[in-house]
């Protein structure tokens, strides 16, 4: 091999190595939405949202890629007490399933700038706590105990109003436990 050929191969290898330091590649799995975020310049924020699976190339210094699942998710929160109308305390252990609305992932990220796990433990949890408290305060203890399906449906409707357009709760149960004094 001649010196020029070696030099050319070395230059090509150097350019490939250098570009691999600055170019990133993420694989967006099936059932997920990938968004590319510009971190510098006048176009900061969510760039064009691409709803594709497969490999996504980006500039490491100026962009990030986030991945959000669009399939059904399940979440449970720790039990806590909530008063009903009249002051009787019930313990709730909320359990629910939800979906991200795929077409709203870019707008959701622009608003909250958080991962799905952080949203579950922050925004969704606060919305859940507020909805359960507000709905429980409108029911008497007898109406809750005699109509738990209606109680859960009222919370589900309130939650879907609070969480739209980004999330949709598909199933919800409060796993209500009455105050031991009521037994």
Terminal Cα span: 91 Å
Mean pLDDT across the residues is: 87
Going across the biggest sheet, name each strand in turn.
3-2-5
Shape verdict = rod-shaped
The largest pleated sheet is described as: 3 strands, antiparallel
Which parts are unreliable, with pLDDT below 50 for 5 consecutive residues or more?
none
SS elements, strand count: 11
Secondary structure category: alpha+beta
Percent helix range: 25-40%
The proportion of residues in beta strands is 25-35%
Taking all Cα atoms into account, the compactness measure Rg is 25 Å
Could you give the order of the helices and strands? HEEEEEEEEEHHHHEE
Count of DSSP helices? 5
Features:
183 residues, alpha+beta, three-stranded antiparallel sheet, 11 strands, rod-shaped
Commentary on this structure:
This protein is an alpha+beta fold and 183 residues long. It has helices spanning 3-22, 105-112, 116-136, 141-146, 148-163, and strands at residues 23-28, 32-38, 45-50, 54-59, 63-69, 73-76, 80-83, 89-92, 95-100, 167-173, 177-178. The strands form four sheets. It has a three-stranded antiparallel β-sheet, with helices on one face. The chain has a three-stranded antiparallel β-sheet with strand order 6-9-10. A three-stranded antiparallel β-sheet has the order 7-8-11, covered by helices on one side.
């Amino acid at each position: 091999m001649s010196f020029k050929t070696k030099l050319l191969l070395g230059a090509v290898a150097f350019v490939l190595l250098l570009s691999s330091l600055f170019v990133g590649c993420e694989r967006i799995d099936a059932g997920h939405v990938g968004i590319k975020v510009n971190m510098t310049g006048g176009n900061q924020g969510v760039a064009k949202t691409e709803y594709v699976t497969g490999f996504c190339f980006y500039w490491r210094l100026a962009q990030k890629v986030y991945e959000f699942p669009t399939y059904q998710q399940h979440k449970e929160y720790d039990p806590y007490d909530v008063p009903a109308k009249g002051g009787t305390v019930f313990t709730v252990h909320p359990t629910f399933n939800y979906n991200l609305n795929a077409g709203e992932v870019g707008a959701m990220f622009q608003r909250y700038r958080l991962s799905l796990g952080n949203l579950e433990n922050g925004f969704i949890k606060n919305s859940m706590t507020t909805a359960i408290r507000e709905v429980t305060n409108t029911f008497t203890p007898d109406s809750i105990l005699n109509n738990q399906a209606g109680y859960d449906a009222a919370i589900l409707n309130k939650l879907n109003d609070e969480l739209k357009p980004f999330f949709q709760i598909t199933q919800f149960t409060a796993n209500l436990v009455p105050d031991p004094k009521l037994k």
